[in-house]
Amino acid sequence: MFEPFPGNYVWNLSTNIALNTGAQLNEVLDAIRPVIDASSQGDEATEAYLSAYEELGDRLVELADEDLIAGNTLSASDKYERAAVYYLTGERMQRVGYAPREVVYDKMLSAFASHLAHTDRTAERVEIPYGDTSFPGILYRSPLAGPKSPVVVHVNGLDSTKEMIYGAPLREDLSRRGISTLMVDHPGTGEALRLRGLTAIVEAERWGAACVDYLLSRGDVDEDRIGIVGWSLGGYYAPRIAAFEKRFALCACWGANYNWGELQRRRAEREGENPVPHYWDHVQWVWGQPTFEDFMKFAPAVTLENVVSEITVPFLVTHGSGDRQIPREYAHAQYDEAVNSPDRTLRLLTPRDGGIEHVGGDNMLPAASIISDWVADRL
Length: 379
Description:
Layout: H1 9-20, H2 25-32, H3 46-69, H4 73-91, H5 99-118, E1 123-130, E2 133-140, E3 149-155, H6 162-167, H7 170-175, E4 180-184, H8 190-194, H9 205-218, E5 221-231, H10 234-244, E6 250-254, H11 260-270, H12 279-287, H13 292-298, E7 315-320, H14 328-337, E8 344-349, H15 365-378
Parallel strand pairs: 3-4, 3-5, 5-6, 6-7, 7-8
Antiparallel strand pairs: 1-2, 2-4
Helix pairs in contact: 2-3, 3-4, 3-5, 4-5, 9-10
């Protein structure tokens, strides 16, 4: 993994994710150079990290605005997209309740909306009805799809967003195979959490069913060819959904997450590598738990034990052999328990493959290819 911040896994992973979801290397290097030394301060310096990426995002938006004035809409769209990546990279590292974080998130949404408004890609913002409210998504319809498109619902992890999924390579890899993608900010993530107060729930099949209901309401989706993919904590959500929402035709995990609740106990005991700064405040926010003690009592419910065995569709588990967050044993457990899947596959990515870090933080291309080929063979 590219490690410009010596000894700071969290900052390094964040910057690598940016580079895998649409950032440009030299723009990133110019932005982070002034804060490299500050990275040794860990959580205490994340505000500097935000400033570095916010300034870069602001510059790209200014340049995009100039492109629009000149009539260069596609160039503007590309810059707005990168600006959104930079804003999000800084924002998601901040502590819960930090006011500048909210400002930068609004900038991200605005930049991404401008990207969608001017892009030539077949992407649209959508709303998925959910009880008496809704949560947002991005539907990317493959130009190769027929009147009734196969669709993959791609769900988030602990701290990712629909815009991050959009920038990752899986969307385009699926599209080249004639498969559309619905990327959602479901409860516990993105806009659903930040702007609508929808926290994560153990019974993810409730909002998973809402995604299927929405797709079937459109009239341009093949009801027999709807799959689900989840990365990181989505490696819990997606199998849970596929186990209990039988309208999904297949399920793929980009990173196993067999017993996330148990992992929190391990993390609390040894404070290992954390995916985001201010970790415990973050997970309490995501799951709607008021205190650390409440969260630790709740966390054991977030498990796929006695759940994966309910999956009755094709099931793929991919996992990086060098994942520093989720142990490799969870990938084996997730695969081994899926005894009722008629077609199960476990793929551990090696240094030869590439993409060995958590959810391919070092290189998302290998897993994206594996997943898209596997999905295309079955949809």
